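Batch job 17 of 40 flagged for manual review because the log was empty.
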Amino acid sequence: MSENLYEAQYVVTKKNKIKKFYEENKILFISFLIAILISVVSIFFYIENKETKKIELSESYIEAKIDLKNGNKNKAKNTLKKIIFANDSTYSVLSLFLVLNENLIVQQEEISNLFDHVLDNNKFEKEINNLIIFKKALYKSNYIDEEELMLDLKPLIETESLWKPHALLLLGDYFFANDQNTKAKDFYSQILSIKNLHEDLYEKARLQLSLIINE
């Protein structure tokens, strides 16, 4: 009998302690629950807003392509620039490449700045990032000097990137076009020393080397 009474008193005491603890920390508990609710709503809103933005950018990109098809190049250019500055890792890049392919912007500095903006304001997988670096260097190779081109391609030629052989080929072609055959030969030879490349890359390097030898 006394054991049952003791257990009953223990349960009552425990409940009173829990109730007292809750009363003393009620505001903290409520604040914590509100914070969780706000976080859940915020995450849901962020995801929903991101999806909506993605759809809007997709529609704008399609509209720009339609404008290009209809000959409205200036309108298409303005739309594509807005998409580029929307900082979307998919459509900003697609828009920049479309601007390049259609030659919608002729100012070299502006194109270079757009490349920098895309690289600085988006997160990409490593090789996508390297592709954009290569595309930027390829575009600039028509007007920059040797030092700047080497600097632009440094992230590719000093790593085992998929774009390293393409960067080496670009440098080889750059020096070959500028009658610096010794430097060109070095970069073409580096391509041949890399294993498991697509045969087209080896073939291009061999062809350029044969042109240098036969000069």
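Reviewer: the log was empty due to a logging misconfiguration, but the result itself is present. Residues 57 and 83 are 6 Å apart (CA to CA). Unflagging and moving on to job 18.
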